[in-house]
Amino acid sequence: MRILLTNDDGIYSEGIQVLKKQLEKIAKVTIIAPDRERSTIGHAMTLRKPLKISEVKINGDFWGFSLDGTPVDCVIVGLLEIMKNNKPDMVVSGINRGPNLGDDIIYSGTVSAAMEGAMRNVPSLAVSIAAYENFKFKSAALVTKNIVSHLIKNSLPSNLILNINVPNIDYDKIKGIVVTRHGKRVYQDEIKIIHDPQGNTHYWLGGDLPEGKIEPDTDFEAIYHHKVSITPLSLDLTNYHNMLEVKDWVKKWYLK
């Protein structure tokens, strides 16, 4: 089995290093990741400047490829160039430093990398750890290896996207794996206005960390109960629930 491994925290992030060590036990892993942190960059692509690929060595040995682009760029370059003659069986993105729960999936570079893989017909996983400090990456890596080892026994749909969130606890304390829907985040948005010595005004986006609503069958509920959350995502963003209502509106419109 061949895996294209990427992330949005950068190629030197501890999360991707720990994950590679575990996945190498069950698959051939090729890393292509951003040369620096690219968190919350979403599905951005680099279209107006050339991209540079560099070989990264650790302790003198080749370890992977870095790219001065976004996570989505990494997947595209990985599939169309670096692995063009040995197409991966799976794209894995992670391990992200911090959760990707609820509305996070809209902003997440980690999730967007997995979505790009599925858009290009490669089953993909996005893996995040539900914490902001003192990360237990080995625990999340073991969970990921376990999930991948089971998935490879099946004939996977090419458009598969699984958003995986792992509680930040020791592996032997995890209470199971559940399939969830994504919940709702409550963001405490704030804009701080800063004036520099020249009198120019700058805006700093911030606010308190978002809170999640603990509702039944959601990713938030799973993490709250120390369980791994797996949320299948879809590339189809159509809101079917509202289609009939919108059709009724359109019947009353006319074009001059």
Structural write-up:
It is a single chain. This protein has 256 residues and is α/β, with parallel strands linked by helices. The protein has one domain (2-185, 212-251): Stationary-phase Survival Protein Sure Homolog, Chain: A (3-Layer(aba) Sandwich). The protein is 26% helix and 30% strand. It contains 7 helices and 11 strands. It has helices spanning 14-23, 71-82, 104-107, 109-119, 137-151, 219-224, 243-251, and strands spanning 2-6, 28-34, 53-58, 61-67, 90-97, 124-130, 161-167, 177-179, 185-195, 201-212, 228-232. It has a 9-stranded mixed sheet with strand order 3-4-2-1-5-6-7-11-8, with helices on both faces. The protein has a two-stranded antiparallel sheet with strand order 9-10. Helix 5 (137-151) links the parallel strand 6 and strand 7 (161-167). Helix 1 packs across helix 5 (137-151) and helix 2 packs parallel to helix 4 (109-119). The longest helix has 15 residues, at 137-151. It starts with a strand and ends in a 5-residue tail after the last helix. The model has no long low-confidence stretch (mean pLDDT 93).
